[in-house]
Write a structure and sequence with these properties.
Blueprint lengths: L7 E4 L10 E7 L3 H8 E3 L11 E8 L6 E10 L10 E7 L3 H12 L3 E2 L4 H8 L5 H12 L3 H11 L2 H26 L8 H30 L1 E7 L5 H9 L17 E7 L2 E7 L9 H13 L5 E7 L6 H8 L7 E6 L29 H11 L14 H22 L4 H19 L5 H8 L7
Parallel strand pairs: 1-7, 8-10, 8-11, 11-12
Antiparallel strand pairs: 1-2, 2-6, 3-4, 4-5, 5-6, 9-10
Length: about 450
């Protein structure tokens, strides 16, 4: 990360050639105003009084030559009333690539240090503008891929996660204080009943366990699901991909083996981001190109959250379908779906009994797609998304699970009848873990690891 006390700068908006009308260069640190004054010339010339939280119009120039590099708006925010809690200058430039890069180069040439990933959010945390859960929520808000994911991230940004974790932490601190008081002043205090202590700790453990359990759904909303469609050739895999994505991403023909590579498309299904992978039909093939596609399909099956095994319901469940089912890696959830139900009445095979395969759909007409969607989300454990009001991210979930394990160990300690001293060991560990979530107890190395995963400019 950047040196403490340094003044940092980075492009704080997404930039691409020909895209976006405005781009922002953010400068934060003790020299932000001085650097801004070196590179900014107000319109009309003359001396400009820099008042906090005012917008100024002018140009970014090369100080030595006076050459104008871009027409900009400058926003100055004096510490501590800024995102980072430091002096902040933002230069609002024209969008695209060239102008904003020239402005950033000039800022760096005049005393700023290039900001490391997550440096602005880390400084906001270090200066008390955000707790750690709020800082992490900033990244989740920006990367949200659905409205529901954005709402959950905003709940974290509003302090929802911090409040829930801090309530549980305070309850454990109260129990620890009682235990330590009895260790030091047992003769002067009324007796402490183990069952009463265990009951209060059990309540905390259950609440924390529920948070951990709910986090899997929240992370699905944030990161999305990766879903593969497999099936024998010409069962309608590409048609299903096109129907779900709402556009023609894959070529559809009556010829088997049309899809020879993995096709991916992204869309949102009931607030859940989905990356759908249409695989090449897995079969014996002599064509080298098709063989390569089939090999990639097999590899893809090991990297998805759920597999849709599509078969032609008019032909029934065949030996080839079963052989394909046997290729699914152990532990990966699968959903068997009969396609082309709209043609069932025309089937010469007369395979009309769909009772063994209640998921009967038509990827062409959309018949049965509501039930299919229900089953797909249920297969991934996404059954009660509306109940979620906050959700831990992956790091927070891992730390919370360690806190739960400490409380489970404490229960074993109590069951064994060990003295209060042993209880306090596990209590302290659980309290420390909860402090790691909120940032109350965390070291510099962990902070650097957390914020290094952020994008530059956050």
């Amino acid at each position: 990360m950047n040196r403490p006390g340094s003044t940092i700068a980075a492009i704080a908006t997404a930039v691409a050639a020909g895209v976006g009308s405005v781009a922002i260069v953010r400068i934060s640190g003790p020299q932000a105003q001085a650097i801004g004054q070196r590179v900014f010339r107000p319109a009309g010339g003359g001396h400009q009084v820099w008042e906090s939280h005012r917008v100024f119009y002018g140009h970014v120039v090369e100080p030595a030559s006076g050459q104008a590099l871009d027409e900009v708006l400058l926003l100055y925010m004096r510490a501590p009333r800024s995102f980072t809690g430091e002096d902040v200058v933002e230069l609002h430039c024209h969008g695209g690539l060239v102008c904003v890069e020239r402005v950033l180069e000039q800022v760096l040439a005049n005393g700023a240090e290039a900001a490391a990933p997550g440096a602005f959010s880390q400084r906001a945390f270090l200066h008390g503008r955000l707790d750690l859960t709020q800082a992490e929520a900033v990244a989740q808000v920006i990367s949200a891929r659905s409205r529901r994911a954005a709402a959950l991230a905003l709940a974290g940004l509003d302090g929802g996660i911090y409040r829930r974790i801090e309530v549980l932490r305070q309850q454990l601190l109260e129990q620890l204080a009682q235990l330590e008081a009895h260790l030091d002043f047992e003769d002067d205090l009324p007796p402490l009943h183990p069952e009463a202590v265990k009951e209060k700790i059990q309540v905390v453990k259950e609440d924390l366990s529920q948070l951990v359990e709910d986090s899997s759904q929240g992370q699905c909303l944030q990161h999305g699901l990766r879903v593969a469609i497999i099936g024998c050739p010409n069962v309608g895999k590409s048609s299903l991909l096109n129907h779900l994505s709402g556009r023609d991403r894959a070529i559809v023909t009556d010829l088997p083996g049309t899809t020879r590579d993995l096709l991916e498309t992204e869309f949102v299904l009931r607030d859940v981001p989905i990356t759908l992978v249409d695989t090449a039909g897995i079969r014996q093939a002599s064509n080298p190109v098709e063989q390569l596609g089939i090999a990639r399909s097999r590899q893809a099956l090991t990297q998805v959250d759920v597999i849709i095994l599509l078969f032609d319901i008019n032909l029934g469940w065949s030996e080839a379908d079963q052989a394909l089912a046997n290729e699914i890696p152990e532990g990966v959830p699968q959903l068997r779906v009969g396609n082309k139900v709209d043609l069932l009445s025309q089937s010469k095979n007369q395979f009309k009994d769909t009772s063994n395969f209640p998921l009967a759909i038509s990827a062409v007409t959309g018949q049965g797609m509501e039930a299919f969607t229900d089953a797909l989300l249920e297969c991934c454990g996404l059954t009660d998304l509306e109940r979620l009001d906050t959700s831990l991210n992956r790091r927070q979930t891992s730390v919370a699970q360690k806190a739960v394990e400490s409380l489970i160990h404490l229960e074993d300690t109590a069951q064994a009848g060990l003295p209060w001293d042993f209880w306090t060991i596990d209590l302290r560990e659980a309290i420390h873990r909860l402090g790691e979530i909120t940032g109350k107890e965390i070291n510099e190395n962990i902070l650097d690891e957390i914020f290094s995963k952020f994008c530059i400019g956050k």
